[in-house]
Write a structure and sequence with these properties.
With about 110 residues, chain A is mainly β. Helix content of chain A is about 0%, strand content about 50%. In chain A, strands 2, 4, 5, 6, 9, 10 and 11 form a seven-stranded mixed sheet that branches. A four-stranded antiparallel sheet of chain A has the order 1-3-8-7, with no helix packed on it. The chains are: A mainly beta (about 110), B mainly beta (about 110).
Chain lengths: ~110, ~110
């Protein structure tokens, strides 16, 4: 049973560009959350998707957007990249009825903005 | 808003030493508390959790007790192993399905043979 898979694992962009990161949830999971982990910091919640709609959102600008597909996979899009967007982006999947903490994390996509 | 404060790191210990990693939190209501671990080259994993005051979470020899009076959730292990070398994150969430997690900064633990 594959866990949470993310792609790409590493990528480099320049300021002003746009990036799309992808996530396939653990089999059977219907909810996907995205977190940003800057170097030396803990993960910060970006948003969560369920039934193809954004259900919760953290304190991130509109440059960060997402999408969930009918097969529950998800994309994170970041427009007009800034140097400060350099981070590890983590995807976590869960069941819609998950109790607190019942999240499964992927290994992340490391984005470097030059 | 909610926040989690972890002790500054990194921490380096010899094998079989006693481990304590401090964590305090600020939250409204009665949050659930967690310790997550990030081993090198792996994704974040839930290590243990506690969902109400005085609960003790435990796993793999690690323990943490939910102390509402001191708003703390300190992680302890009686005898660390080299394989425990990892980054440890304290986190909290509201009690409810799929509530977002608020993490501390994390602390790197290195255990020497």
């Amino acid at each position: 049973d594959a866990g949470v898979t993310q792609s790409p694992t590493h990528l480099i962009k320049t300021r002003g560009q746009q990036v799309t990161l992808r996530c396939s949830p653990k089999s059977g999971h219907d909810t996907v959350s995205w977190y940003q982990q800057a170097l030396g910091q803990g993960p910060q919640f970006i948003f969560q998707y369920y039934e193809e709609e954004e259900r919760q959102r953290g304190n991130f600008p509109d440059r960060f957007s997402g999408h969930q597909f009918p097969n529950y996979s998800s994309e994170l899009n970041v427009n007009a990249l800034l140097l400060g967007d350099s981070a590890l982006y983590l995807c976590a999947s869960s069941l819609s009825s998950a109790r607190p903490g019942e999240l499964f994390f992927g290994e992340g996509s490391r984005l470097t903005v030059l | 808003g909610n926040s989690v404060t972890q002790m500054e790191g990194p921490v380096t210990l010899s094998e079989e030493a006693f481990l304590t990693i401090n964590c305090t939190y600020t939250a409204t209501g009665y949050p659930s508390l967690f310790w997550y671990v990030q081993y090198p080259g792996e994704g974040l994993q839930l290590l243990l959790k506690a969902t109400k005051a005085d609960d003790k979470g435990s796993n793999k020899g690690f323990e943490a007790t939910y102390r509402k009076e001191t708003t703390s959730f300190h992680l302890e292990k009686g005898s660390v192993q080299v394989s425990d070398s990892a980054v440890y994150f304290c986190a909290l969430s509201k009690t409810g399905a799929n509530s977002k997690l608020t993490f501390g900064k994390g602390i790197t633990l290195s255990v020497r043979p």
